[in-house]
Amino acid sequence: MGRPMKSARKRPRISVDVLPEVRRRLRRAAAKRDLSIRQYVLEAIEEQIREDLGEEDEEMMTLTAKADPVLAELWDNPKDSEYDRL
């Protein structure tokens, strides 16, 4: 039986089927770094995302007109343009 989650908010789960050899290699690699398989996989996923998305991912985390066209439309009006002069 699994352990109860520490946070009250549920997190999405991802399930991946792998070949037995891949699982063995994954266990060895995680053990080599003294990590659980979960920790190892999460770190590997995060690293791959950083490599694939780089700055693009961080740009999307900030509220900018480029990142959110709906906000761009709200911000681009005569009343709010007063703030551009500050």
Notes on the structure:
It is built from three helices and no strands. It has 86 residues and is an all-alpha fold. The protein has one domain. The relative contact order is 0.05. The model has no long low-confidence stretch (mean pLDDT 79).
Detail the topology: elements first, then pairings.
Blueprint: H1 20-32, H2 37-61, H3 69-75
Helix pairs in contact: 1-2
Distance between the termini: 59 Å
Give the number of domains: 1
Largest sheet geometry: none
The chain-level structural class is mainly alpha
Mean pLDDT: 79
Percentage of helical residues?
Answer: 40-55%
User: Looking at the structure, what is the overall shape?
Assistant: elongated
Helix count equals 3
What is the gist of this entry?
With 86 residues, this protein is mainly α.
Question: Characteristics of this structure?
Answer:
86 residues; mainly alpha; 52% helix
